[in-house]
Amino acid sequence: MATDPKTSLSAASLQSPMPSPVSASAPTVTDSVCMSLENVTISYGSFEAVRNVHLELPRSRVTAFIGPSGCGKSTVLRALNRMNDLIPGCSLKGRVVFDGHDIYNPKVDPVEVRRRIGMVFQKPNPFPKTIYENIAFGARINGYKGDMDELVERSLRKAAVWDECKDKLQQSGFSLSGGQQQRLCIARAIATEPEVILMDEPCSALDPISTLKIEETMHELKRNYTIIIVTHNMQQAVRVADMTAFYNAEAVEGGSGKVGYLVEFAETEVIFNSPGQQATLDYVSGRFG
Amino acid sequence: MFFDPSLSRNRINKLCTTVAGVFATIAVLPLLLVLLYVLWNGGRLISFQLFTQLPPAPGMEGGGIGNAILGTLIVTAIATLIALPVGVGGGIYLSEYSRSGWFAQAVRFSNDVLAGVPSIISGVFVYGLIVATRVFFNQSYSAMAGGIALAVLMLPTVIKTTDEGLKLVPQELRWGAYGVGASRFVTITRVILPAAFTPIATGAVLAIARAAGETAPLIFTALFSPFWPEGIFNPIATMSVLIFNFAIMPYEAQNALAWTASFVLVVMILAANLLARWIARAARP
Ligand SMILES: Nc1ncnc2c1ncn2[C@@H]1O[C@H](COP(=O)(O)OP(=O)(O)OP(=O)(O)O)[C@@H](O)[C@H]1O
Ligand SMILES: [Mg+2]
User: Left if phi > 0, otherwise alpha if psi is -120 to 50, otherwise beta: which for A160?
Assistant: First the structure.
């Protein structure tokens, strides 16, 4: 994989004042690449939020994004399924390759991209519909023709929330607790049968028990899905992630604010035990700032 | 440690409370008096024949305001059928499609201006546009023209409440819908609009209630008719114009009908407002 000519070419042509990411050589695991970012720079208006990201996300693995607040983790995550399109003024340079195609190619339909790359947000956001409809909605608009009852049950089971929901499927999604709502949102994302699930701090509003349940869910899911999760919780990254990407932000000359960049991308074990960069070591050992 | 009423801050506090209370009473007094007065003068004449009979010829006794009640319902329905789709569509455009472009700003501004335009202007406008030009089957005054004039009045309220109601829908909900692969159309019609149903419905009902009581725009457009409604392209009786006409007639029976019509109209508008409150409170999903 490291011999992929395109990757090494763009890595070589990278001219950045920042420490060059060691990502190009990182994934030594023998699985295939699911998505790859090639020299991605994302700006809000004229402000560059993250610069020159190179990343290869392995298939059927959990990848964690960690880093200090404001370094652009959410921004990169949203770029993976074109969610940034919804933010006025947000633009992307570089390529995000999924299934052999650049998803930012003008011919690509973002709706189709989001059907294959689902997303779970930081704040639980169930639709103001019944629990059943919350699940069925996405499946139906994706053209699901099979047994809907069965799909609803299967999705809720996969998201570890079936037992809490099975007696109140016709009640509003808001009648659940925050943690249950978040798992309902995960079930909703699963029901559309995406290939990749993006999660932006899915557990930040949850108690430890719900968090553990969601982590178990992720372990279950990674057999069939590629998962990318943003988290501020180091232990969580260690517990769930196979690969970890550490981002940081730095003030640059002539810039209007701090610009985020990818510092290091490697197996979670490596990132937390023997990282290649001093900044990573400082961050994961809590000596940051 | 103990409350001392003779302290100057406590005396000023008391004075201010009293003054505010007096002004508040003065403010609600007109509403109370109007309700009581109309109730007293109009309420005692309520009867069944009022809703089923035509007004009497000048000088005759008895009769009812059945045609005017029906006419108000028809004209308001026409206005609603025009203003609701256009207004909700416009609000959706402003909030969902063009959040802050210059065109949206211009539309919002002119909408606010339109909301402040006196209702008689809307009547004169529709008179010039439709009545004087006889565009509808060569008819001049008609229920249709009246409905359009009322729709012009309703439009700003409906657009504004739709726009504001949609803005209240949390951004996360839109993201959630897009996140499961919904297109913009599906997101708006199946997720955003249902979520904003309450404020939109409330605004629409209030706009309808306000339009139902308007007189000035109808005098120029729907005119009046002593008969039962004859289709929507003929002049039609409405309650507000009936009140306007009958209250100044030198006949006892007509004056009494004007009072009763006032009472019925006030009750209808009150009911619409209660309906709006009920919608606003009705169990959210
Ligand atoms: N909608 C937006 N409009 C303008 N700038 C934005 C927007 N969203 C994020 N930014 C900027 O982009 C940078 C990266 O933000 P981002 O939300 O990606 O950070 P993050 O790493 O997810 O932080 P956190 O850990 O706090 O969630 C920040 O400087 C932020 O101010
Ligand atoms: Mg974030």
Answer: left
Inter-chain residue contact A86 with B178, CB threshold 8 Å: yes
Higher-confidence position of B87 and B234: B87
Q: CA nearest A189 in B: which residue?
A: B180
Whether residue A128 has pLDDT greater than 50: yes
Partners of residue B183 in chain A, C-beta under 8 Å:
111, 141
User: What distance separates the 2 farthest-apart alpha carbons in chain A?
Assistant: 59
Q: Quick check: A228 pLDDT over 90?
A: yes
Identify residue B39 by its one-letter amino acid code: L
CB atoms within 10 A of CB B138: 8
> What global pTM score does this model have?
0.77
Q: Which atom of ligand 1 is nearest to the CA of A65?
A: 21
Domain CATH code at residue B240: 1.10.3720.10
| Residue A121 CB–ligand 1 contact under 6 Å | no
Put simply, whether B176 touches A (Cβ < 8 Å) is: yes
The answer to whether A127 contacts B99, with C-beta atoms less than 8 Å apart, is no
Cβ–ligand 1 contact at A111 (below 6 Å):
no
Quick check: A3 pLDDT over 60? Answer: no
CB of residue A73 inside a 6 A radius of ligand 1: yes
Output the CA–CA distances (angstroms, integers) from residue A80 to A195, A196, B67, B126, in the order listed: 12, 10, 64, 53
Shared-domain flag, residues B19 and B55: no
Q: In CATH, which of 3.40.50.300, 3.40.50.720, 3.40.50.620, 3.40.190.10 is domain A3-13+24-126+196-284?
A: 3.40.50.300
User: Closest residue (by CA) to atom 30 of ligand 1?
Assistant: A70
Rg (chain B; Cα; Å): 24
- With respect to residue B1, please indicate whether it lies within any of the assigned structural domains: no
**Residue A230 CA, ligand 1 centroid: distance in Å:** 13
- Give pLDDT tens digits for B239-253: 888 888 888 888 878
Q: Which residues of A40-52 are buried (b: 16+ CB within 10 A; e: fewer)?
A: bbbbeeeebbbbb
The answer to whether residue A227 scores a pLDDT higher than 60 is yes
For the cut 60, the answer to whether the pLDDT of residue A141 exceeds it is: yes
The domain in which residue B17 lies consists of 8-45
Domain segments of chain A as ranges: 3-13+24-126+196-284
